[in-house]
Amino acid sequence: MEAFRLGAGGVLITACHLPSDCHYISGNARMKARMDALGGMLQKLGLSPERLRVDYVSSAEGEKFVNIVKEMTDQLKALGNEKIQAENAKLRPILENMLKRKAAAQQAAAQQAAAKPSASVAKPSDDANPIK
Fold it and tell me: pTM of the predicted model, to two decimals?
């Protein structure tokens, strides 16, 4: 969201192949769920679907990665700079509001976590130490 708020023409997210080809264990599966939800929401808000792409590429698939980048570049060129700028102008205030709410929620959660009493470890008293 931040990339589009700042005016990006497109966002390409690459990840390890699903389901378990990732040294981050479940990071690619979590990303897929988040991007499925975010992509649908951004489209409803007016973002062209070509502007957000998620693809799965391993480090051994350099040629595939190059082809994905070229394809996305061609799609963005076909959309045109005017359409991209118009979409960004429409989305920017919505995304700014969403990001502010997210930051406020994160700050509130951090404050709640800081306010909780932590379990303290009992320290032996000097009297219990025979060696002084």
Answer: 0.73
